[in-house]
Specification:
alpha+beta, seven-stranded parallel beta sheet, 10 helices, 627 residues, Beta-galactosidase, Chain A, domain 5, 31 strands, flat
Length: 627
């Protein structure tokens, strides 16, 4: 794709943006109320950042003799050009974590409105990636802030505008409000390029992405099929099938523990206590597999509320340290989406406790990695007992605690996989250095699986592993093609030979019969034979405007293409090839499509739902080109 050039015409603190194809929109600084220049001085600094990107920063100075209260400041506001407001012509990607199950990218209605709050939501989600993007078949426009610390700001979209907005700003006389650094960029195609630019800019601010670990490309099984009351013998019963299928990671999922915050095995399901944990990891390791444990850092049961109809108890940790919790400005306890009390990550005792839990799981019990779940962002802490310099000390320390978990594990388990799952929403950006396998995080459809894989390939890196989550979450409960063909690491949560007691307690039953067992084995062995996920994701197809939907990963001299549609008959383009001859085959159904020639080859196809193609140089067809 040709990279466009972004330019602007300036009039005071207003910018008219345009690229090679025409107008894009107008940038302005908006305050509510809008005092006159004798009271408020506005300064908009602008400079080129890239050929296709501008850096902006706003300063507001109170020249009056009394405090100036502003209900909201938009620093800046971007009004979209008319081309973006034509019904049915525009898509948008909005990456604030607003609600479980949200679409990260979707068709844009000019009347669409959303607040896109980036801070903590009491008893809810919050956080995310501060990037909003709009695109048409011709061009796209992104707004992002590049502050390295999460802030309780908004990126509201309303009436054809998007802004970086802060609310309830009070300026004392003579004081200057310095807004966040903002980048506006122009692109061609879907959200991949603006997210890749964001990754690059944040790396320059210290948010470096860890190098990919080979073990993070291994397929995974998770005990969540057994739901909240999983028992060690149920996990052990599955291990021979996992070995048969070539699945290397075994995750002990939710509710193995007694209390959030204490994290000891439940006596009713793990009667052997910690010894049960050690026996379980030993059995996993004896088969050459890795063990991963589910937990929820910085959360504690304090006797308030419930989750999934189970009332919260009172953890021993809370009884001993009730002063460790985060408090809101009104003195109430800050709570996460499971209504648990949030522990303050800036408190030294909380940091020591979290590191000790990590040591217990890794060194004592023998786990190889973590599934850190339901992680969104952190509330500012107003607990007077903590004597914070600023309430946002807790927000700054939030990612540091997760990085401590990562670093401790990395030093003792170099092969570890550490996931942070922001269930149903985009991950908060400050956590990027604290994991080595981003997760599609509870997708609600096959389409969400594929889009989120591309989202994280852009945000985390085109050669990074992205866990596609349990295949049972896809449209058919068995859509391996979407997980593998889009470049994800496949996973599953099947159960095996459940007894009557197990079946009676489950809400959903994902037991395999022999036919499904063979199907699962086929797909996992196919994944291990090819590993498209280990290739480099190439951004050559627009998920909104190319049909059929296309993905491609380059792995050495091989190219793995995935095409998706309910039903498609007609030509497809194989983009990104070198100018040479290639053999094409459907590597799922072992169908030969003949020989084509790059750099762009055209092929007539007929498929339902998915077509996965391996394209390799003619003189190496059938030869392992990675050797």
């Amino acid at each position: 794709m040709t990279r466009p050039r972004l330019s602007y015409h300036r009039k005071g603190n207003t910018l008219a943006l345009l690229d090679d194809l025409g107008p894009l929109g107008q940038v302005a600084v908006v305050t509510d109320p809008a005092p006159g220049p004798e009271k408020l001085v506005t300064r908009l600094d602008v400079r080129p950042l890239r050929e296709h990107a501008l850096w902006l920063r706003v300063r507001l100075t109170n020249l009056g003799r009394t405090p100036l209260a502003l209900r909201r400041v938009q620093v800046p506001r971007l009004r979209l050009a008319a081309e973006f407001l034509q019904p049915g012509q525009t898509w948008t990607m909005q990456a604030a974590a607003v609600a479980w199950g949200q679409d990260f990218a979707f068709p844009f209605d000019p009347n669409f409105e959303r607040e896109n709050f980036l801070g903590h939501v009491q008893n809810g989600e919050g956080g995310g990636i501060p990037v909003v993007y709009f695109w048409t078949p011709r061009h796209g426009l992104a707004l992002m802030h590049i502050d390295p610390v999460p802030r309780p700001w908004y990126m509201p979209v309303r009436r054809g505008t998007v802004a970086l907005e802060q609310r309830d700003v009070v300026l004392a006389p003579g004081v200057t409000f310095l807004a966040a650094e903002v980048v506006i960029s122009v692109h061609r195609g879907d959200f991949f390029e603006p997210l890749a630019l964001y990754r690059e800019l944040m790396a320059a601010r210290g948010l470096d992405i860890p190098e990919p670990h080979p073990a993070a490309f291994e397929a995974a099984w998770c005990s969540w099929g057994y739901e909240f009351d999983v028992r060690p013998e149920e996990v052990l019963r599955v291990l021979p099938l996992l070995e048969e299928m070539g699945i290397q990671w075994v995750t002990l999922d939710d509710r193995w523990f007694d209390f959030y915050g204490d994290w000891y095995p439940r006596p009713d399901t793990f009667p052997g206590g910690e010894d049960d944990m050690r026996r379980l990891t030993d059995a996993i390791h004896q088969r050459g597999m890795y063990a991963q444990i589910w937990w929820y850092p910085l959360a504690v049961e304090d006797g308030h509320g419930d989750w999934d109809a189970r009332p919260h108890g009172v953890a021993r940790l809370f009884r001993e340290h009730p002063d460790w919790v985060v408090r809101n400005p009104d003195g109430s306890v800050a709570r996460n989406n499971r209504h648990l009390a949030m522990l303050c990550p800036a408190h030294p005792g909380v940091q020591e406790h979290t590191l000790e839990l990590t040591r217990r799981f890794i060194e004592d019990w023998g786990f190889d990695g973590h599934k850190l779940d339901n992680v969104y962002t952190m509330a500012p802490c107003h607990n007077p007992a903590h004597r914070h310099t600023h309430p946002e000390d807790s927000v700054r320390a939030f990612a540091d605690v997760y990085r401590q978990i990562y670093d401790f594990t990395e030093a003792r388990r170099p092969h570890h996989v550490t996931q942070i799952c922001s269930c149903g929403t985009p991950l908060t950006f400050s956590l990027l250095p604290a994991l080595n396998q981003p997760v599609t995080a509870d997708p609600t459809s096959s389409l969400q699986v594929r889009r989120r894989i591309k989202f994280y390939k852009a945000l985390y890196g085109p050669d990074q592993p992205v866990f596609a989550d349990h295949v049972e979450l896809t449209d058919t409960g068995a859509d391996f093609a979407s997980e593998i063909g889009a470049g994800g690491v496949p996973g599953t949560k099947f159960i095996w030979q459940p007894g009557p007691e197990t079946l009676a307690r489950l809400r959903e039953v994902w037991a395999l019969d022999e036919t499904q067992r063979a199907e699962w084995r086929k797909w996992f062995q196919l994944y291990n034979a090819h590993r498209p996920a280990q290739g480099e994701y190439l951004n050559l197809y627009d998920l909104a405007f190319d049909h059929p939907e296309g993905h491609v990963l380059r792995k050495g001299e091989r190219y793995y293409y995935g095409f998706f549609a309910e039903q498609y008959q007609g030509p497809i383009e194989l983009r990104g090839l070198a100018p040479q001859r290639y053999r094409v085959r459907d590597y799922v159904n072992e169908q030969d499509y003949g020989v084509v020639e790059g750099p762009v080859a055209r092929l007539n196809v007929n498929f339902r739902h998915a077509l996965l193609l391996l394209v390799e140089p003619l003189d190496r067809a059938g030869v392992d080109s990675e050797a």
